[in-house]
Amino acid sequence: MPKAPALNGSPANRLLASLPAREYQRLLPELEPVTLAFAQIIYAPGDTIRHVYFPNDSIVSLLAAEDHHASLEVGMIGNEGMAGIAVFMGVNTSRTLALVQGAGTAMRMKSAALRMESDHVGSFHRLLLRYAHSLLTQMSLSSACNRFHTLNSRLARWLLMTHDRIGTDEFRLTQDFMSNMLGVRREGVNKVAGELQRNKLIRYSRGHMAILNRPALERISCACYGIIKEDSDRSLDKG
Ligand SMILES: [Zn+2]
What we know:
- There is one protein chain.
- With 239 residues, this protein is an alpha+beta fold.
- The protein is built from ten helices and ten strands.
- The strands form three sheets. A four-stranded antiparallel beta sheet has the order 2-6-4-5.
- Bound molecules: zinc ion.
- Zinc ion binds at residues 145, 149, 154, 157, 222, 224.
């Protein structure tokens, strides 16, 4: 079972936790706890975005879908962020597919409430601006990463980013999902995941992934992981 979101204590979502307590209290009536299921679609390209989501221990992936069979992850949103940043920027639809990559809980807010509160609460507005910038960094680095870095360093980066957000060493992950996230065929994913498994960095079987040696994953990951993490952590600094 996913852990319950904190309703009255400090929020599990780090973006919400960065708000001054008084302003978080102001947002609280607008926040509804929800459970997100593995592979649930939050919004599809062209859909009107009715809610924004602040993940607690769930992960939402932003996918550029080429067609029904091929896609590529262009952004990952967990407890450091919010799914639906387009709404904050004054747009109510998105070109990307927002899909639940890690099941768990989130707090959601109606899009209209998000607009209203971000217009009225200065610290919330500034926080969302900084987050939008860090997501932009993540998305632009990801696109270069997907083009220039090797598959095993990309898989390591992706596993580390997932591990950071989901907060457990074991999580559900199908081969189809991995190949869709990384934009490569299943055979390619099998090959590099098999190599990581033989070297005891991960254990992977029947749709379950276990992280066994995180420091070794950090060593083989490309530098993108550290840059994205540093930028994201900095966006959450109060100020
Ligand atoms: Zn990279």
